[in-house]
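I am writing to request your help with a piece of structural work I have in hand. Thank you for your consideration; the sequence and its tokens are set out here:
=====
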Amino acid sequence: MIHRFVKKFLRWYDRYDDFNTVFAAFLFSIQIVHLAWLTTNVVLPRLFNIDPVIFSGFFDALVAAVDYTEIPALVATSLVYSRSFKKKANKKDFLYLILLNLQWFHIFWITDEVVLETFNPPGFIINWNVQLAWIAILVDYLEVPVIIETLKRALKVIAR
């Protein structure tokens, strides 16, 4: 029964491939808000010992809302690249699938609160925690090339 549902879903997905590509690009590009917050409120302050740049309560609420779109964005965008890879296997789609799905590791391994607590602990900083936090941040930025490529694909669809 599940196998039949999956086959039906994938047939529907392939039929509406253009729409799904544009939808995935839109959904995934929303993560730029999160990356802007991460850069201005975590990375730059930590690297240059400066205060966070964005203090707005509205922006914090926006980042929280964006965080809830990450899982559907990963699923939608993974479908774009897995279906593309199935049609014509290539290294680029395979690489983007890897970069995309590393995000699952990041989501379930360490959250933004853990990163912030690691960088701003009340007491002693354990060095390996800081290194793990930097790895988590690096993994978060690995989605940037995928966002750019997905937006390019969406723009090609829209232009047709």
About this structure: DSSP finds eight helices and no strands in the chain. The mean pLDDT is 85. The chain has one domain: 2-159. The helical segments are 2-15, 17-29, 31-48, 57-87, 91-109, 112-119, 127-141, 144-159.
